[in-house]
Specification:
By secondary structure, this protein is α/β, with parallel strands linked by helices. It is built from 15 helices and 20 strands. Bound molecules: ligand BES, manganese (II) ion and zinc ion.
């Protein structure tokens, strides 16, 4: 999608889109169109159910007096309550409305009608919405006919003060690139994206100035990340750990550590999963995709913070070399783990990453992201990630960032009572705590690897990394969940 900004001018376009607020509040451009068409806009509204609600559209085809193939009235809802997110969704819905319409170019007149967001910012958010809504993963479609592909490929954002809008959008375009990267990674099949190739995708971030270190199995073994390596033992693919460093902050600022589960395919291992739906486990690297996408965003917009991204890339397969239920493995921390269920592999990957990142980089805060448990989907569905945190300020920061970005989190409990479920007969802990409170016992497992009360938050994103239904700025498929959330957390809490 080609996105441009310009000041209002009378230029021709396939689709001229104007804003209408709730109860048919016409924006100035909609008013002007009504005048230019001799009142056709108001007559069309009167003859329809269109009232200016968010998501509503009314199209006037080739109206006389207007230099456009169609005039589109696009509902904003109550303009006095329109936030940055409202303008993102407004534009995302416009993309959805026009994508297959035959129009190749659309002009969006952004006017806030007295709403709380500065017009230039509303325009930048509209551009962001278009960029994310127009995402498609189509590299493996070879037989699509032109009329099955989206027609719309140019969006001209027209706003008074377009230069300000353009500069407001510049950092947002970097965040969008991070979301797109995460979506691409989550969408790739596991025969294409496995630890080695996912590590190569990380290496590409050096173009943004990220310092990328890829560790092979010999190096991981030398460090002693044995619970991570144990998960990958059954796979023909070698495991990798990738550390991505962005040093945009002051030299004396301790970094924020972002830690991602990157299981490129999760069969369950010897504790094998049922066949139905197993293909979904190609996106069991969603946590790592969020971290990689966030690093892309943060580096792209040159965030003034020091951030370490670390991802553990493994494939969980059954084979003669696979780890067995009952195996006892010594983690990097020195704590021993009895592997009761090889399908509870994410925590085995994360625990070693947590120890390594703490001992090597002394972070001031840690956020890990993982498609960790099916139980979090039972609990929260697909509308919130589960948030587990040892630190209230960090939890509040994530909750606020979730609200403002539209990537919400819901805080879940931690506690001694739950931790007991991890007691093992022969080792320091088991890797599963039973069915009850399965997401919480998984979080308790991770918590055992946090040292010196370092502020830590764990996001269980199993219900969020992939979506079966399209939303205004998130087409169905890989969502890129977490990129905007982490980027905003860094911007709001750790920059300046
Ligand atoms: N990757 C899965 C969790 C998952 C399930 C993610 C569905 C996305 C959708 C994880 O590795 C797993 O298998 N968890 C087990 C844990 C159990 C064995 C304690 C689960 O949730 O069943
Ligand atoms: Mn599993
Ligand atoms: Zn998994």
């Amino acid at each position: 999608m080609q996105i441009t900004f310009s000041d209002p001018a009378d230029s021709s376009t396939d689709a001229m889109v104007v804003a209408v607020g709730a109860d048919c509040l016409l924006s100035p451009a909609a008013e002007a169109a009504d005048r230019a068409t001799g009142g056709a806009v108001r007559r069309a509204i009167a003859a329809s159910r269109f009232s200016g609600k968010a998501g509503q559209f009314l199209d006037l085809m080739a109206p006389a007096g207007i230099n456009a193939g169609r005039l589109v009235l696009a509902g904003v809802g109550a303009s006095a309550d329109a936030t940055a997110r409202t303008w993102q969704d407004w534009a995302g819905n416009i993309y959805g409305h026009l994508a297959g319409s035959g129009a190749t170019a659309a002009t969006l007149r952004v006017e806030t009608m007295g709403g709380p967001v500065a017009e230039a910012d509303a325009a930048a958010n509209a551009a962001f919405g278009i960029a994310l809504a127009s995402y498609r993963f189509d590299r493996y479609r070879t037989t699509e006919k032109p009329d099955q592909k989206p027609s719309l490929n140019q969006a001209a954002i027209m706003v008074a003060g377009s230069a300000a809008a353009q500069s407001a959008y510049a950092p947002m375009a970097e965040v969008a690139a991070g979301v797109v990267l995460a979506r691409d990674l989550v969408s790739e099949p596991a025969n294409v994206l496995y630890p080695e190739t996912l590590a190569e995708r990380c290496t590409a971030l050096s173009a943004q100035g990220v310092d990328v270190e890829v560790m092979d199995e010999a190096r991981i073994d030398a460090i002693g990340m044995r619970t991570l390596l144990a998960v990958g033992m059954g796979s023909a693919r070698d495991s990798r750990v990738v550390v991505m460093r962005w040093n945009g902050g002051p030299d004396d600022q301790a970094p924020i550590a972002l830690v991602g589960k990157g299981v490129t395919f999760d069969t369950g291992g010897i504790s094998i999963k049922p066949a139905a739906g197993m293909e979904d486990m190609k996106w069991d690297m969603g946590g790592s995709a969020s971290v990689i996408g966030a690093m892309r965003a943060i580096a792209g917009r040159k965030a003034k913070a020091n951030v370490i991204g670390i991802v553990g890339l493994v494939e969980n397969m059954p084979s003669a070399n696979a780890q067995r239920p009952g195996d006892v493995v010594t983690s990097l921390s020195g704590q021993t783990v009895e592997v009761i269920n090889t399908d509870a592999e994410g925590r085995l990957v994360l625990c070693d990453l947590l120890t390594y990142v703490q001992r090597t980089y002394k972070p001031q805060a840690i956020v890990d992201l993982a498609t960790l448990t099916g139980a979090i989907i039972v609990g929260l569905g697909h509308h919130n990630a589960g948030l587990f945190a040892s630190d209230d300020a960090l939890a509040d920061g994530l909750t606020a960032a979730g609200k403002s970005t539209g990537e919400p989190v819901w805080r879940m409990p931690l506690g001694e009572e739950y931790d007991k479920a991890l007691k093992s007969q022969i080792a320091d802990m088991k890797n599963v705590g039973g069915r009850d409170g399965g997401s919480i016992t998984a979080a308790q497992f991770l918590k055992r690897f946090i040292e010196n009360d370092t502020p830590w938050a764990h996001l269980d994103i199993a219900g969020m990394a992939w979506s079966g239904e399209s939303k205004p700025i998130t087409p169905k498929g890989g969502t890129g969940y977490g990129v905007r959330l982490l980027d905003r957390l860094i911007a709001d809490r750790y920059e300046q």
